[in-house]
């Protein structure tokens, strides 16, 4: 059945800001989440790593170089050290001709800050690193910040998801990679009705390794199994339109403004 995190959102297709809308402003920052929320997105997607002092931090890469003025692995720095960096340093919309967010005070966010500033909006949280204890820290924090029914937790690491579900069974999760492959195989064989998913959300790319994953049949079969189908990362309006016509329940996009406009919500 529909998890509480999705219940309030109704039946309309969801616009989900990928990393807070990384095409529009510096990814995974409080600034991005603020702006995306103001646009009217339904959900914020973000990525989690663990700092050296075991705090959950919102950043996509394992290392600092691509998005900040820092260097080296996120896990080698304390939260305080990470928050001294400029998280807007590398953002550019014109291929590096200009960097409008440099020196504007955009910091790496701690997950706690996200919960403090945005308690109500649904969030899709991605555990990026398995085997470092993120699952337990996350589960405790979700309870402490009253977020158990405000989030969907996902990971590309099956054992991380398994661990998280053991610790936090009341929280909605998205299908892990093994479950996704199983669903695709069963769908391909015409046997998707054999699937009885224990997770409520399916987040997949429309294509993967040259294969089309998002077909009308896959979406229909997944929905028949009770799954909410969210597709990533959909940035162009023609593809957004195509997937919505196919019945997608949500679009995870770097450009939530485009999706909202297409849906007549801006
Ligand atoms: O929600 C899935 C999507 O966020 C995965 O891609 O690399 O942007 O985390 P990535
Ligand atoms: Ca992600």
UniProtKB/TrEMBL annotation:
<dbReference type="InterPro" id="IPR030395">
    <property type="entry name" value="GP_PDE_dom"/>
</dbReference>
<protein>
    <submittedName>
        <fullName>Glycerophosphoryl diester phosphodiesterase</fullName>
    </submittedName>
</protein>
<dbReference type="GO" id="GO:0008081">
    <property type="term" value="F:phosphoric diester hydrolase activity"/>
</dbReference>
<dbReference type="GO" id="GO:0006629">
    <property type="term" value="P:lipid metabolic process"/>
</dbReference>
<dbReference type="InterPro" id="IPR017946">
    <property type="entry name" value="PLC-like_Pdiesterase_TIM-brl"/>
</dbReference>
<dbReference type="Pfam" id="PF03009">
    <property type="entry name" value="GDPD"/>
</dbReference>
């Amino acid at each position: 059945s529909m998890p509480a995190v999705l219940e309030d959102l109704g039946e309309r297709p969801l616009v989900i800001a990928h990393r807070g809308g990384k095409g529009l402003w510096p990814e995974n920052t409080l600034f991005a989440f603020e702006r995306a929320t103001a646009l009217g997105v339904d959900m914020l997607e973000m990525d989690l790593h663990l700092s050296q002092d075991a705090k959950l931090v919102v950043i996509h890469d394992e290392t600092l170089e691509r998005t900040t003025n820092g260097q080296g692995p996120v896990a080698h720095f304390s939260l305080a050290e990470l928050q001294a960096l400029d998280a807007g340093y590398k953002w550019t919309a014109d291929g590096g001709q200009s960097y409008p967010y440099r020196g504007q005070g955009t910091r790496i966010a701690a997950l706690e800050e996200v919960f403090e500033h945005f308690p109500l909006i649904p969030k899709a949280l991605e555990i990026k690193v398995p085997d470092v204890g993120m699952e337990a820290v996350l589960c405790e924090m979700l309870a402490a910040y009253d977020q158990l029914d405000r989030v969907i937790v996902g990971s590309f690491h099956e054992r991380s998801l398994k661990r998280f579900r053991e610790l936090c069974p009341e929280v909605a999760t998205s299908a892990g990679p093994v479950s996704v492959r199983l669903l695709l195989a069963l769908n391909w064989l015409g046997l998707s009705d054999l699937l009885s998913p224990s997770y409520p959300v399916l987040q997949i790319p429309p294509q993967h390794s040259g294969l089309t994953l998002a077909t009308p049949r896959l979406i229909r079969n997944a929905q028949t199994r009770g799954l909410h189908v969210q597709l990533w990362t959909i940035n162009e309006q023609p593809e957004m339109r195509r997937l919505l016509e196919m019945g997608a329940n949500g679009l995870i996009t770097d450009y939530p403004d485009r999706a909202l406009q297409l849906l007549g919500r801006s």
